[in-house]
Design goal:
Helices cover about 0% and strands about 50% of the residues. The strands form two sheets. Strands 2, 4, 5, 6, 9, 10 and 11 form a seven-stranded mixed beta sheet that branches.
Length: about 120
C-alpha cells in the first residue's frame, strides 16, 4: 500500500524556520517526482515546488518562496523535506506532499506563521 505522511508543521513567528517531512511507504520516492503544495483558508491548493525523480534537474520552487524554501530528499529515509526559512504570515497554510505517479496525497500538515 502506497502512502505519504507529512509532519513538522506548527506555529512559528515571522522570520522563523520549519522543516516539513514527507515519509513515503510502499514505493521508493527517489524514482519519482514529488511535489509540495499548500492551501491557505479559502484558497485553492497551489504548488510550492518539485523535486524530480529520474530527470536530471535540480529541485525547483515557485517565485514567491524562492530564496527561502528548499526541497531535498533522503534516500535512506525515503523522505522528502521542505525547508522553510524567513517565514511570513502569508506562508500560513496546510502543506501537502503529492506523488503524481499514483495521484497520491498526504494528509497535510498545518503551518501557522504569526506573532
Amino acid at each position: 500500500q502506497v502512502q505519504l505522511v507529512e509532519s513538522g508543521g506548527g506555529l512559528v513567528q515571522p522570520g522563523g524556520s520549519l522543516r516539513l517531512s514527507c515519509l513515503a511507504s510502499g514505493f521508493t520516492l527517489s524514482a519519482y517526482d514529488m511535489i509540495w503544495y499548500r492551501q491557505a483558508p479559502g484558497e485553492p491548493r497551489y504548488r510550492v515546488g518539485t523535486i524530480f525523480g529520474t530527470r536530471d534537474a535540480p529541485p525547483d520552487v515557485v517565485d514567491s518562496v524562492k530564496g527561502r524554501f528548499t526541497i531535498s530528499r533522503d534516500h535512506a529515509e525515503n523522505t522528502v523535506y521542505l525547508q522553510m526559512n524567513s517565514l511570513k504570515p502569508n506562508d500560513t497554510a496546510v502543506y501537502y506532499c503529492y506523488a503524481a505517479r499514483w495521484n497520491l496525497w498526504g494528509q497535510g500538515t498545518q503551518v501557522t506563521v504569526s506573532s
